[in-house]
Amino acid sequence: MSKRILVVDDEIALTRMVKMNLESAGDFVVRTVNRGSEAISAAREFKPNMIFLDVMMPDMSGDEVALELREDPLLAEIPMVFMTAIVTKSETGSTGANIGGNEFLAKPARTADLLAVIEKMTG
Predict the structure, then answer these.
(1) Residue pLDDT tens, the chain, 123 long
(2) Per-residue exposure over 79-104, b if at least 16 CB sit within 10 Å of its own CB, e if not
(3) Cα 105 from chain centroid?
(4) pTM to 2 decimal places
């Protein structure tokens, strides 16, 4: 059964690359949205197994999106991993880091790193 992954990032090229790389690498169905404000409705409709969420977006920050997701009983249990250029790979390692109780992955993330985090978060 395919794992459904939602990628939320305002960088269109990045979301296209992540979608292409994950769908080529394994049994994944990837949906992308490029506005934080679209993430909640996309999550409700798509019912992802996991969400990659950019921290800094112009319309709605990743923290704000995460808070709304956590307040919705239907979405609260979906694993989320923040992707950010604010932290470096040397600070997070290849499988991410936990900062303030949230999983983080440094951008740009290699496909192997994305796959490792998906396995870690979804089993």
Answers:
(1) 899 999 999 999 999 999 999 999 989 999 999 999 999 999 999 999 999 999 889 899 888 999 999 999 999 999 999 988 776 555 555 445 555 567 888 888 899 999 999 999 998
(2) ebbbbbeebebeebeebbeeeeebbb
(3) 9
(4) 0.89
